[in-house]
């Protein structure tokens, strides 16, 4: 037992000397044990560790080995693979392959995959450009209640990417703002207040009377 502990400590020291923190190394070992036991989430996490070099030296070959095993039923692994193909990281860039992996993650209900697949449709990356399909995917993700996605959809309406304009933008900014999304609070305070009114003393209508500009500025937004 003492030999095993000493061996682990020596190995840990070697990893630290290689620029890896003890916490990262411990996390990697936990992921490895879960992955080798057949746990899909553990396999996805282990693949990610190899992909970014967290707790272990970066190794794309091992990363894709574990990510593909996990991707049979883990949407996070599918997202990482989609990211890799979309950006040409560890594999040749292939937008069509990225779209394929995003679709698989969407089928498992991953809202981030919906946002990214929507962006592919908006830009025509790996698929024929279709703004209507892009907005439908963004809206589907936003309706799942994630504040950042709701803010993103508000931006799409505000910038004219989606039909509905400022009216729909306010609806989605407000949903995000009520969950504490600072960017949405700032947009409500700055974009939709009359220019002649001080944002310190007025705010757009909001159930519960929340003062969005004050909330946003309290998070470090400038005066």
What does this structure look like?
This protein has 223 residues and is mainly α. The protein has a domain at 14-70. The chain has twelve helices and no strands. The chain has helices at residues 2-17, 22-36, 40-52, 60-70, 75-87, 95-107, 111-123, 131-142, 147-158, 165-177, 182-190, 212-218. Helix 2 (22-36) packs across helix 3 (40-52), helix 4 packs across helix 5 (75-87) and helix 5 (75-87) runs antiparallel to helix 6. The chain is globular and about 50 Å long. The protein starts with a helix and ends in a 5-residue tail after the last helix. Residues 3-18 and 195-223 have low confidence and may be disordered.
Radius of gyration: 22 Å
- What share of residues are in beta strands? under 5%
Poorly predicted runs are 3-18, 195-223
The helix tally amounts to 12
H and E order: HHHHHHHHHHHH
- The whole-number mean of residue pLDDT values reads 82
CA-based shape: globular
Q: How does the major sheet shape up?
A: none
**Can you give the helix content as a percent range?**
55-70%
**Could you say which structural class the secondary elements and strand pairing correspond to?**
mainly alpha
End-to-end gap: 61 Å
E-strand count:
0
